[in-house]
DNA sequence: TTGTATGCGTTATCAG
DNA sequence: CTGATAACGCATACAA
């Protein structure tokens, strides 16, 4: 399998140079020759060897995508959107997973570099000057998602702070007794790890509390919030999973409260619609997000400057409908 | 960035050949020279250019993994298990998605071949002699998962037929009135598409019905099965999602029945435990599956013969516990 | 023990 | 319009 341009040239009785020119539709080749080459190429199913091309050009028509994990539905869908968008631009995406581990993130980025990816879409775990210096040293276009780095890197993602404030505002409009915030601690790595999105979501809730003057407490432990909840309370959780976990534990441990707590999460999981007691959520469009990041990347790949892009969010009521 | 072995040689004042021997720990190199090279390599962060290596060797230390979709939690987790297992063997996995489309499957496999993957793990959408000829023409080791092809290709996956029969048997032990089978049609491509796993699951239910003499019907439409259900019926669905869909629609459209139907699905979704009215399911171990496929691949990569491998399944009761 | 030459497949440059 | 030649970075066979 896999014939070479050399072989193709031999078949056509010409040289590699001419084969190349014919295949690339260069003007300086006789029409008859080009057709002969094209016909032979099709006949023998010639595919240029990408590795050879990459060696000489340094380009692989591949974009590396660094994510935490595919088991989170949202990132699985976001990746699909990237893949399809990149596809249309003639790029193949190569996803790698950091599993939230800083060391592993470096490792997988190096693997992508070994394979000479042309650009990087990155949901960073690391942060700080050393990490940024590392990224700069790669000298390829990089777009950062969700967890912002410094201004030196193009960023795209939702305005989590505003989204979170609006989520709290939505809950407020339902006249709850209090509005708590629930976000489990991020593990011992929290200090070294990039928790930008987590932090600004909490800030958004604080913003809303200050502005609307509701009461409510921030909790990091499910057991603790469960023991403190009272009928009519609302809980904004930093992810749908956390909200669902509270719902499930309420039903088990404090069933009298189960129907009396207003729950809201983040991410708009598709599976929410199968739950009998539905929760509110905040949803982002993967499509829009992917397009934003890819357009930034297109700018950088073309040598242009690019600007940060914001991805819109939607407040989804428990019945699944948008809330204006 | 990225120094070459040539440059490294110049720095050490020796030739590329010796650098290569030193880096590879070949015996025929003076100890002192090796240490000088190793020190310089570390100092300047020399990384061999994988593209160059791939061009000359044809090997990229990369394994292609062809899946349908990452949005299905099960395959996302299966992929993670592959990735980690391959990692330990010194391989990087490159996942691509066919989205169940036969043409796209060919396309993404070609993209992997362009990148000179050393082997393929494949969850096939296509089937038939033409497709198998295509796969043979790639002349790299291939392991097939879940949807069996001919004996020419090593297969690993659960015994879906037996698992399905045991699922029906589990339901039978709960003394339902009837045990129906629900599996929506697979779209118009069903004829050309490889539906092996779907087919054998249905066969398993048929086996059980014949053996245990229960009554029950096969349905392909949710609306139809909803209209036919009666209290005490059980439904075995070909996926947890379908079972959950029936549950949700029952609650909405026939609430009097909602608690009186025994539901069971396939795949053991993690999120099932958050549902108040839980369903039974059949679970497979990603870990075990990944190890099976990777050991087959290791055989093939080493030039050995390999045998099909079966992945065990577990019947999970609604309370989340194993059923013996 | 080390250096040199050749080739992997492609592209770009320079002659013709 | 076309052919020959030199890279790209590495590995290997052969020479010293």
Describe the structure.
Two copies of one chain form a homodimer. With 324 residues, chain A is an alpha/beta fold. Chain A folds into three domains: 5-48, 434 Repressor (Amino-terminal Domain) (Orthogonal Bundle), CATH 1.10.260.40; 58-154, Response regulator (Rossmann fold), CATH 3.40.50.2300; 160-285 and 317-323, 3-Layer(aba) Sandwich (Rossmann fold). Chain A is 45% helix and 16% strand. Chain A contains twelve helices and 13 strands. Chain A has helices at residues 5-12, 16-23, 31-44, 50-57, 73-88, 102-114, 129-138, 160-173, 196-212, 222-228, 240-253, 286-301, and strands spanning 62-67, 92-97, 119-122, 142-145, 154-158, 179-182, 218-219, 234-237, 262-264, 281-284, 309-311, 313-316, 322-323. The first copy, chain A, has a six-stranded parallel β-sheet with strand order 2-1-3-4-5-11. A four-stranded parallel β-sheet of chain A has the order 7-6-8-9. The radius of gyration of chain A is 26 Å and the shape is elongated. The mean pLDDT of chain A is 95. The interface between A and B is large, with 43 and 42 residues. Chain A binds a DNA duplex (16 and 16 nucleotides) through residues 4-6, 14-18, 20-21, 24, 28-30, 33, 48-58.
Keyword list:
homodimer; 324 residues; alpha/beta; 434 Repressor (Amino-terminal Domain); Rossmann fold; 3 domains; six-stranded parallel β-sheet; four-stranded parallel β-sheet; 12 helices; elongated; DNA-binding
């Amino acid at each position: 399998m896999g014939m070479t341009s050399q072989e193709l040239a031999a078949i056509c009785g010409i040289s590699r140079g001419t084969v190349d020119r014919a295949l690339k539709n260069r003007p300086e080749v006789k029409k008859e020759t080009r057709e002969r080459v094209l016909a032979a190429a099709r006949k023998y199913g010639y595919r240029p060897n990408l590795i050879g091309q990459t060696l000489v050009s340094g380009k692989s028509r591949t974009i590396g995508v660094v994510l935490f994990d595919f088991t989170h539905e949202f990132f699985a869908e976001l990746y699909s959107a990237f893949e399809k968008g990149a596809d249309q631009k003639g790029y193949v995406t190569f996803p790698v997973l950091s599993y939230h581990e800083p060391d592993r993130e470096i490792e997988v980025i190096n693997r992508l570099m070994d394979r000479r990816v042309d650009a990087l879409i990155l949901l960073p775990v690391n942060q700080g000057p050393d990490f940024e210096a590392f990224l700069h040293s790669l000298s390829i276009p990089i777009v950062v998602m969700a967890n912002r780095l410094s201004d030196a890197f193009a960023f795209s993602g939702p305005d989590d702070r505003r989204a979170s404030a609006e989520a709290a505002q939505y809950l407020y409009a339902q006249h709850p007794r209090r509005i708590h915030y629930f976000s489990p601690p991020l593990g011992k790595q929290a200090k070294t790890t990039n928790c930008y999105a987590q932090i600004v979501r909490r800030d958004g809730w604080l913003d809303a509390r200050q502005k609307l003057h509701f009461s409510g407490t921030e909790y990091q432990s499910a057991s603790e919030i469960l023991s403190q909840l009272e009928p009519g309370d609302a809980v904004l959780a930093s992810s749908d999973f956390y909200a669902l976990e509270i719902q499930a534990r309420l039903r088990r441990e404090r069933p009298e409260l189960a129907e009396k707590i207003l729950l809201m999460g983040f991410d708009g999981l598709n599976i929410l619609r199968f739950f009998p007691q539905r929760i509110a959520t905040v949803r982002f469009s993967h499509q829009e997000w992917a397009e934003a990041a890819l357009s930034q990347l297109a700018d950088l790949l073309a040598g242009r400057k690019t600007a940060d892009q914001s991805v819109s969010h939607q407040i989804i009521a428990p019945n699944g409908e948008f809330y204006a």
